[in-house]
Each structure stands twice: as C-alpha cells, then as structure tokens.
Amino acid sequence: MNENHTIEAQRENPGIFSGLAATTKRDLLLAWKRPGDVLNPLFFFAMVCTLFPLAVGPSAEQLEFSGPGVLWVAALLATLLSLNSLFISDFEDGSLDQFLVSPQPLPVLVLGKTLAHWLTSGLPLVFVSPILAITYRMPLSVVGVMMLTLALGTISLSLLGSIGAALTVGLHRGTALLSLLILPLAMPIMILGANAVSLAASNDIYSTGIWALGAYAIASLSLAPYATAAALRISNE
Amino acid sequence: MTHKLSADNLTLIRGERCLFQGLSFALESGGLLILEGRNGCGKTSLIRAIAGMLTLEEGTVFWDDVPVDDQRQTFHGDLVWLAHRTGLKGDLTLVENLGFERSLRAHSSRDPEEVYERLGIARLKKLVLRSLSAGQQRRVSLARMLLADVPLWFMDEPFTNLDREGRALVMELVEEHCAKGGMCVMAAHQDVEIAAPTTRVKIQ
Fold it and tell me: How many domains does one find in chain A?
C-alpha cells in the first residue's frame, strides 16, 4: 500500500450523465443475470392476450372489437406486476442507502433505474405486441399505431409506477397498495392508448390520443424522478 | 485541507420514544468519533441522522461550518457509508460492483490491486458476490470505502462478520486514515481501542 497516499483536497466527481448511464447499465446487467424477472411480466402479457379469445369466442368481429382494449389492459397489468421489484432488492441489500449518500443527485439515479426498468419491461411488451395483435386480426397499419401508443404509455407507466414502488418499498406486502396508488394515475394512459388504437382501426382521427400520451410521458419524465426520490428518502428513514 | 464535522443540539424521536436529545459534538480532521451504547439504543439512528439519511426533530449537522442540508451533494461527495447491509449486488462480481461505484464518485489515486491484496480479496475478483462469505463481502465493502478516497468515513458496526484478523485490519485502516487527516464516525457496541484522537458519545 502506498504509504504516502494523501486524501486529495479537491476531487471532481463524475457528471450526472455518468451516474445515469452507470445506474442504467448496472440494472440492465442485473436483469441479464436474472432473465426470469424480465420474462415473467412478458409471459403474463402473452398469456392474458392468448387466453382472452378462448374465453369469449373466436368470432372475427368480436376479436377486432376487443383487441385494442385487451392488449392495453394486459400491458398495464404486466407493467404493474414488474414494478414491485423496482426498489425492493436495493432496499434489502443496502444499495438504497448508498444511493442516498451518493454525490450524484438522487433523481438522476432514480431516472437511471426507471430507464432500465422501461428497457426491460416496457420495450419488450412493445415488440411482442404485434404478434399478439395479428391474432386479433388487427391490420398492419393499426399495429404501428398500437406500438407507438404502447411505447409512449409504458414510459409513463414506468415513471409513475416508480413513485408508487418508492412509497411502498419499506412495507411488507406492499403489492396491493402499489396497484391502488398507481391505478388512478395509470387509468388515463390506458384509456387514451386503447381509444387511439380503436379509432385507428375504424379509420378515424387518432392523433389526439398520441399527442396526449406524448404529453403525459413528458410530464411524467420531468416530474416523476423528483417525486420518486422524495418518496425513497421517506421510505428509507 | 482540514475539515470539520459538528452537530448542535440533535434530537431524534422515533414513534413515542425519544432516542436522544440535545446531543452536540465536534470532530476535526484526524479525529475519530465513536457512538456507544447497548443494542437498540439508537446508535444506528444517530449515525444515519448525521449522514443525512434520517430527518432530525431538532438540531443541525454542520460540515465545514455549513449546514449539511444546504450542501448535501458536497457533503455526500466527501463521505462514504459502510454498514451491515453492504449495498453490493450479489449477482455481480467484485469488479462489476466496484466499477459501478467508480462511475458515481471521483476516482482515487490508490491502486485497486494493492487494496484488494491488502484486504485479502484479490483472488475473489472474478466471483459473484453471492458466493462469498459474509466476512469476505464485508472486506469488499471495505475496499469500496478505501477506493472512494474521501475524508469522512461512516461505519455502522464495522466489526460484524469479521474474524480477529479482519477486526485488527479495520482498526489499522481507521488509524491510518485518521493519521492522514481523515476522520471517522463509528457506531460500535464493542469496546474499540484505536490510536487516534477519540471522542466518545454515549447514548443512554
């Protein structure tokens, strides 16, 4: 060991983009090492979407009519399912303590984690949805609209969900409470998304829904990290 | 550059219980602050409160005579936290874990290999942390602390899970750190004898 080593007076900490990238990278690496956590919600999504026609009957009209709604409900529930584990392991192994005393701003670290969550839960849903949409006899032009609404919607869901996950992280069995907290905020996303897809399917003007979802995503992106950071500080006391 | 950590009139109430009241101390560069008391007396709450993780009912903690609430990032850039829950990921290897920490904090001028060697974890570098023993994981969190290269160390029960040799090593590291002008806040239920200017705070 270097005996002459002294504590440096002035050190420059890495910038916030380094912190953001590092947190995202770490969570993606963890997801890679535990693929089950990523595949579970995806499997749930696919199951709900394939079981539904079996229960209500395979008539073409009915499938076309209910397709957007079923896909969106399933996507919402699958995202809720994956949100539970967002902060739990960090809370249990003390990583959250390290985040709280990190020189990086907490909202930045939270945003990094949420970004990784979206990349491992929301984005796969977007890419799997066309396969399921085709089984609902959705025309290809509408599939594009649906993917866009799902992409924008799951961004908002991940961000809003992170607030709920942060509030319930210290509670045992906070699952039900998390869903209860998030549903009122998530409902408009689902309604807008499913509606836009239905409108597109009936050749109507659907762009309003897309803009509204985009606005919702931007609002969540700018506000949710701060709310989540504040919630984490309270939960970890 | 010398630093100063001081606290004025700290009061913390958890539920209906008052854990401590009117607690004050001052710690200069090179000093060691030991928080003592039996189990469940609020040592951990106190050390968490000083580090800024708990909201105090009353009182202020100062870093270089500026309230830490006004300069949270500077304060947190100058401290490193070591506790029973190590904050390391069991699914990642030692190098991956410490690499993450390095992206959040300034790089130290210490050679990581030397630090690993000294802590006896050099040959564990490629293993995932889950496969290490509790004591070995503790040594990894010590490595993170050394590599962070900051003046202020917070250690909550640093001797847990360590063997006799490991405990001696922790004391040696703290001594060295204080001798170099660093400072250390430690919560411990055992008698700790470290050759550094020591302030003791007993919690009833």
Answer: 1
CB A112 within 8 A of CB A19: yes
Torsional sign, CA A126, A131, A137, A143: positive
**d(Cα B76, Cα B81) in Å, to the nearest integer?**
9
Domain ranges of chain B: 4-202
Residue B67 structure tokens: 């309230």
Q: Is the pLDDT of residue A99 over 60?
A: yes
User: Above 90 in pLDDT, residue B165?
Assistant: no
Q: Is A236 on the interface with B (CB under 8 A)?
A: yes
Among A7, A100, A237, select the one facing B181 at the smallest CB separation. Answer: A7
Q: Which domain holds residue A106?
A: 16-235
- Could you tell me the sign of the dihedral formed by the alpha carbons of A17, A23, A25, A28, in that order? negative
Nearest CA in chain A to B50: A101
pLDDT at residue number A3: 43
What is B4-202's CATH number? 3.40.50.300
Contacts of B52 in chain A (CB under 8 A): 100-101
pLDDT tens for A121-156 read 999 999 999 999 888 888 888 899 999 999 999 999
Interface mutation vs chain B, best among A100, A101, A110, A234, most B CBs within 10 Å: A101
Q: Nearest CA to B98 among B53, B28, B57, B145?
A: B145
